[in-house]
Specification:
mainly alpha, 1 helix, 0% strand, rod-shaped
Length: 31
């Protein structure tokens, strides 16, 4: 994440967290 501003790094971290939660939803609801 070199070259990104702190704001961009935060946006990337939020996007990764959201994507991870979305990816885990099907697995969690199927059990």
């Amino acid at each position: 994440m070199a070259g990104l501003t702190p704001q961009q790094q935060r946006q990337v971290a939020i996007a990764i967290k959201n994507a991870r939660e979305i990816a885990l939803l099907p697995f969690g609801s199927s059990r």
